[in-house]
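Subgroup meeting minutes
Present: P.N., E.W., G.H.
Scribe: E.W.

1. P.N. recapped why we're keeping a running log of single-chain structure predictions: easier to compare across weeks, and new members can see raw inputs and outputs side by side.
2. G.H. added today's entry (276 aa).
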Amino acid sequence: MIHRTFTSGADPESVLRGDVRAPDGPSPDTAIVVVHGFKGFKDWGFFPYLCERLADAGHAVVSFNLSHNGIGDDPLEFTELERFARNTLSRELDEVQDVIDEVLSGSLLGEVPRALGVVGHSRGGGQAVLATAEHDGIDALVTWAAVADFDRWSAELRAEWRDTGRIFVSNARTGQQMPLDVTLLEDLEANRDRLDIEAAARRLAVPWLVVHGLDDETVAAEEGRRLAGWGGDTAFVGIAGAGHTFQARHPFSGAPPELEQAIDETIAHFAEHLRD
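Output recorded in log:
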């Protein structure tokens, strides 16, 4: 397998670091962009394995760290918490679109793909829906454990956030208290139309596979069913016994059956809709 890294973006505040994986031999004519979620990163748990499986299936696969996801020079640890605090949803969407544009221009892969798919997990699934609705160059979409709405804060927490300017979310894996500046909330409120996942889902015209663990306690499976109900050419796959990460852990120690099912469904979706 071919595996190389890339760095994109001239602005130091918005540098994107990523990976391109592709099968050995002739360059694939199909590509897939993979988008991580909140408190996620391209080397978390199942992401490298997912990308390798997609590349083995014959696609060029691009994964990347959103610029304000908290990952710095150490690819496996959150060392940029002040940058994480400054993140916004609009910034994330712009960066997803930037990577898609680079793939479709040929500048990232060396040639223009004939067809492009997008995969997004959790909050990255919501961003994948928005990006697909905004961009006419995407041919197929898969979301894993995706959120149906970015607005996930109570009125009490909003009031505290506005009063203090910052709240903290716990990272159960690392024990870190990860800061979020009120600019995240302000950005959502100022850009509600652009960041409206339901409205974007209803505009989608591409084949969309919604994959969700039926035991997901982070983003309930009902959100996946809502997404599937809003889409047009949409299928919902609920995976029994699967939580938010399809029973995978970080560090990755092998693929459990629930993850394998999610990947197999994803590969089949792209085989059908990127190979036409």
